[in-house]
Amino acid sequence: MNKKLGLLVPLFAIAFLGVAGCGGDGSSAPSEEEYIAEAEAICQKADEELAATVESTFGSEAPTRQQVVAFAEDELVPNIEGQLDDLRSLTPPEGDEDTVNAIYDALDQDIEAVAENPAAAVESPAFVESSRLAGEYGLTACGGSS
């Protein structure tokens, strides 16, 4: 891991619950496996987009703590907020609505905590609860263990 990404790891270590808008179209709800596969593919895309933003923002230089805090405010929080909007547009598997909504609600709280104090997110892992719940549900690229 290069030094600049190493400095960002505490902030981004378990942060990426992301899904693009693929809301229900009136058809039946997806299976859990279909839902997870769709979410994982889109989370990977979101991770790649954020990594590209990290690269274009910092290049080969290691960011300062202040730059990481600014990045969290200017890039990470809006990115994850957009992902949450997209997550909420998905139709969850039948019977999993409460579980999926618990993940979304935890992500919303985690986003709020980072938005209120991005400096604290630099010091310790962010998005802990939402990532734990996502991992328990079977999501790996979307916040669980990858």
What's the pLDDT, averaged over the residues? 80
Q: Helicity range of the residues?
A: 55-70%
Strand tally, please? 0
Specify the structural class. mainly alpha
Main sheet: strands, sense, barrel: none
Approximate strand percentage: under 5%
Q: How are helices and strands ordered from N to C? A: HHHHHH
Distance between the termini: 15 Å
Q: Quick one: overall form?
A: globular
Query: Helix segment count?
Result: 6
Rg, nearest Å: 15 Å
- Poorly predicted sequence stretches spanning 5 or more consecutive residues: 1-5, 13-26
Write up what this structure looks like:
The chain is an all-alpha fold and 146 residues long. The chain has helices spanning 3-12, 32-58, 65-89, 97-116, 118-123, 128-137. The two termini are 15 Å apart. 34% of the residues are buried.
Topology:
Elements: H1 3-12, H2 32-58, H3 65-89, H4 97-116, H5 118-123, H6 128-137
Helix pairs in contact: 2-3, 3-4, 4-6
Task: Give me a quick take on this structure.
By secondary structure, the protein is mostly helical.
